[in-house]
């Protein structure tokens, strides 16, 4: 703080609680040097002590009996002024308390370090691992010749130390075997120095990556790269939509654009869906760039994540790759932000601060004057519209690399057919297997049967906590709720009438695997869904078995549709293509089209042309037809027409209220109260907002809670914002119910 200033210093602090406002505190004399913006402070709050975030010095305060902060918890700054601007933007846009935004942005593991320095009484601190310390050897400064010369091995070691500048004792032992006496001697002679250094847990440690050089770009790739490079050279914000079919070389464009940014001294942030954050993808980045890459994925412990975070904060990583929360990475001088598979719903956080990392990439990119590249083979309908309007600069890669043809797709009508596999698909599978080639069969539903139905009373088995049917898993011998994990032994008896004849309806991946074994008893079949990939590394193991040819057929849910490149796959089968059309969500057609296109794109990525068989009951639906006919333009045209008529995004902005609680009646009453208040405020403010509902949510009961929703729609973003803001000021929510407001909702279930 300012030198020589003696008056009281008042600072503004955000508390990570659901409180709208920030708070003023006094800084005691002894903490003045430390209490800087960007650090956390321990503060008295009511009769508790909480961690707060120092936002800045307040010019004054209306409050007279301000309390003093107790301690400053950091020695380094946790966020920059620019990042604070970003946090403030988020707090305002998503109407979320600033303290909660900051808490969400910081890594959970950050609470570890502070624990050492302060007493253990703080409530918000959680446990975790700290970084290890390791001994490092550095060249010493003394050059005088001494009497006792070091031996030959010691001299060799010394050469390595000098060459590398600094090297860990562990690394030296790896190269020279036991060498403690030699190291001791070198240190005594002043030829080397020992230093304890913090080391970061390295998520790559076990991978050895071969080098990879830039490819010579084809015409469309070159045009895309030139456009992005021009934006980087000009140091101005430009948002791009990189629209390229699967296998068209988008990743190669990302890599070369990043090279360009790095060469200009700027850094790169890469956001990918969690599911795509595999060694396959990260390996491509590591193979291209030397070190300086930080990877943030959900497999990291809090401690590991915090290590990565610190590496980034200290400027030791210039490329950050991560899932949605990486949008908060403490990376400075960002030149380029890439959002790969920008259409993925997983960029949206579904609880707490309900942000969308894809949207925030544009916001942060603008603040950083960066190039923002949204890449996809099947962009969001809203992105295509934005490109048509010129709000996104369209970069197209219309062809596959090396002119590989798009796969031939056959659509098979399944009306009246009860089998999981059609004759056409069975024949193709047999043929592919006979040719020793690989196949993928896709069905977006796990389990054995979709559900069990009682033959006596005709009722399906449903979850007692959620209003959904239970999925029958034969291997586990259970009927399982996919929402709350409720499970009963299966087949079992009918809970409604105690009937004992339960029949299977619909098919899941487990049944599909079973039927494929009947068809091809000697084929090696793998199943990939959330039942088979829950163990650590199991996802990678399945993928590598497919890649090294030790499997013939891969059966799976949407997990297999995304981000993987299987060069030997020549046949793709899709069972029940319309599974996702039945969702009560205005994006159902868009999701179905995207998913089908992605699955179809898995075929023929190597040198062999691909073939696809799509089985559907509803062969006329435009989402299915367009995907099968590779007619993306046709799909977007039709879908945008529907959105315009129905008043959905991009022609309207949405906010969804979710009201839930244990008492059905209270939920219904409170939903009415909320809707009435919204209606009153709407007329007072004279805003153009449509209020739909309250209505029961599509999943009316979830984990014992009853759920209702209110949907707000407006063609005018600021009208919607004003209404929400005044609702927040005036609403009083009882303690027995929960009301959450989701701005730009993605999941409407
Ligand atoms: P996408 O990200 O669009 O699916 P990729 O960038 O993964 O496409 O490219 C598909 C394959 O083609 C990869 O194996 C990649 O190494 C290769 N590739 C990409 N661009 C070129 C190029 N210009 N020349 C040769 N091979 C390329
Ligand atoms: Zn349930």
Number of helices: 20
Shape: globular
**Major sheet details:** 7 strands, parallel
Q: Which homologous superfamily in CATH is the superfamily of the largest domain?
A: P-loop containing nucleotide triphosphate hydrolases
Distance between the termini: 51 Å
Output mean pLDDT: 85
Counted beta strands = 30
Task: Write down the domain tally.
Answer: 5
> What structural class do the secondary elements suggest?
alpha/beta
Strand order, main sheet: write it out: 11-12-10-13-14-9-15
Percent helix: 25-40%
Quick description:
The protein is of the alpha/beta class. The chain contains 20 helices and 30 strands.
Please tell me about this protein's structure.
With 749 residues, the chain is of the alpha/beta class. It folds into 5 domains: 9-126, PriA, 3(prime) DNA-binding domain (GIY-YIG endonuclease), CATH 3.40.1440.60; 132-142 and 149-199; 219-402, 3-Layer(aba) Sandwich (Rossmann fold), CATH 3.40.50; 404-448 and 507-644, 3-Layer(aba) Sandwich (Rossmann fold); 653-743, Alpha-Beta Plaits, CATH 3.30.70. Helices cover 31% and strands 23% of the residues. The chain has a 7-stranded parallel β-sheet, sandwiched between helices. Strands 16-26-25-17-24-23 form a 6-stranded parallel β-sheet, with helices on both faces. Strand 23, helix 15 and strand 24 form a beta-alpha-beta unit. Helix 1 packs across helix 2 (98-105), helix 16 runs parallel beside helix 17 and helix 19 crosses helix 20. Mean pLDDT is 85; it is low at 113-132, 141-147 and 203-207. The structure holds adenosine-5'-diphosphate and zinc ion. The site of zinc ion has 7 residues, from loops.
């Amino acid at each position: 703080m300012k030198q020589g200033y003696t008056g009281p210093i008042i600072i503004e602090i955000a508390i990570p609680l659901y409180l709208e406002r920030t708070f003023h505190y006094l800084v005691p004399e002894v903490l003045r040097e430390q209490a800087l913006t960007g650090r956390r402070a321990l503060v008295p709050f009511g009769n508790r002590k909480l961690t707060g975030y120092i936002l800045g010095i307040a010019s004054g305060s209306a409050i007279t009996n301000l309390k003093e902060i107790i301690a400053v918890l950091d020695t380094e700054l946790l966020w920059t002024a620019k990042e604070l601007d970003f946090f403030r933007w988020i707090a305002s846009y998503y109407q979320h308390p600033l303290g909660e935004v900051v808490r969400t942005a910081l890594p959970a593991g950050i609470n570890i370090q502070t624990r050492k320095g302060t007493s253990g009484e703080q409530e918000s601190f959680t446990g975790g691992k700290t970084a290890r310390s390791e001994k490092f050897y550095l060249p010493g400064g003394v050059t005088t010749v001494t009497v006792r010369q070091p031996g030959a091995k010691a001299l060799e070691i010394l050469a390595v130390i000098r060459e590398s500048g600094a090297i860990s004792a562990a690394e030296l032992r790896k190269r020279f075997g036991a060498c403690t006496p030699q190291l001791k001697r070198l240190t005594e002679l002043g030829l080397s120095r020992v230093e304890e250094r913090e080391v970061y847990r390295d998520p790559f440690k076990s991978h050895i990556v071969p080098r990879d050089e830039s490819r010579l770009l084809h015409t469309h790739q070159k045009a895309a790269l030139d456009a992005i490079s021009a934006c980087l050279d000009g140091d101005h914000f430009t948002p791009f939509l990189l629209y390229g079919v699967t296998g068209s070389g988008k990743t190669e464009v990302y890599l070369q654009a990043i090279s360009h940014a790095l060469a200009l001294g700027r850094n790169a942030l890469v956001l990918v869906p969690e599911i795509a954050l595999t060694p396959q993808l990260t390996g491509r980045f590591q193979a291209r760039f030397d070190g300086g890459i930080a990877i943030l994925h959900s497999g990291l412990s809090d401690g590991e994540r915090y290590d990565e975070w610190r590496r980034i904060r200290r400027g030791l990583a210039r490329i950050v790759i991560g899932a949605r929360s990486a949008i908060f990475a403490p990376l400075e001088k960002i030149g380029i932000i890439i959002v790969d598979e920008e259409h993925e719903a997983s960029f949206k956080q579904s609880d707490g601060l309900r942000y969308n990392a894809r949207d925030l990439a544009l916001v942060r990119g603008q603040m950083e004057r960066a190039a923002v590249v949204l890449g996809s083979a099947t962009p969001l309908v809203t992105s295509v519209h934005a490109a048509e309007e010129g709000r996104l600069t369209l970069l197209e890669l219309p062809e596959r690399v090396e002119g590989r043809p798009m796969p031939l797709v056959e659509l098979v009508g399944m009306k009246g057919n009860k089998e999981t596999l059609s004759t056409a698909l069975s024949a193709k599978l047999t043929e592919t297997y006979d040719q020793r080639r690989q196949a993928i069969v896709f069905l977006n539903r796990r389990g054995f049967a979709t559900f069990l139905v009682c033959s006596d009373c005709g009722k399906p088995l449903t979850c007692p906590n959620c209003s959904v049917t239970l999925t029958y898993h034969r291997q586990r011998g259970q009927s399982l709720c996919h929402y709350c994990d409720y499970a009963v032994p299966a087949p079992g008896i009918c809970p409604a009438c105690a009937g004992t004849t339960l029949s299977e309806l619909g098919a899941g991946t487990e049944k599909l695997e079973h039927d494929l074994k009947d068809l091809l008893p000697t084929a090696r079949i793998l199943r990939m869904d959330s039942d088979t990939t829950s163990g650590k590394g199991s996802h990678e193991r399945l993928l590598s078995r497919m890649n090294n040819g030790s499997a013939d057929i891969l059966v799976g849910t949407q997990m297999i549709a995304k981000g993987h490149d299987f060069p030997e796959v020549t046949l793709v089968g899709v069972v029940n293509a319309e599974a996702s059309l039945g969702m009560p969500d205005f994006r159902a057609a868009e999701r179905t089209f995207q998913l089908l296109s992605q699955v179809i794109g898995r075929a023929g990525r190597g040198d062999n042309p691909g073939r696809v068989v799509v089985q559907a009951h509803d062969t006329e639906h435009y989402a299915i037809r367009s995907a099968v006919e590779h007619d993306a333009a046709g799909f977007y045209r039709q879908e945008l027409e529907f959105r315009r008529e129905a008043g959905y995004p991009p022609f309207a902005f949405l906010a969804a209220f979710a009201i839930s609680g244990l008492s059905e009646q209270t939920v219904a009453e409170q939903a009415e109260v909320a809707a009435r208040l919204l209606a009153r405020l709407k007329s007072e403010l004279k805003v153009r907002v449509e209020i739909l509902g309250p209505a029961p949510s599509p999943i009316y009961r979830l984990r014992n809670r009853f759920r209702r929703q209110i949907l707000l729609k407006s063609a005018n973003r600021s009208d919607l914002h004003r209404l929400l803001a005044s609702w927040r000021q005036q609403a009083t929510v009882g303690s027995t119910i929960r009301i959450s407001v989701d701005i730009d909702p993605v999941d409407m279930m």
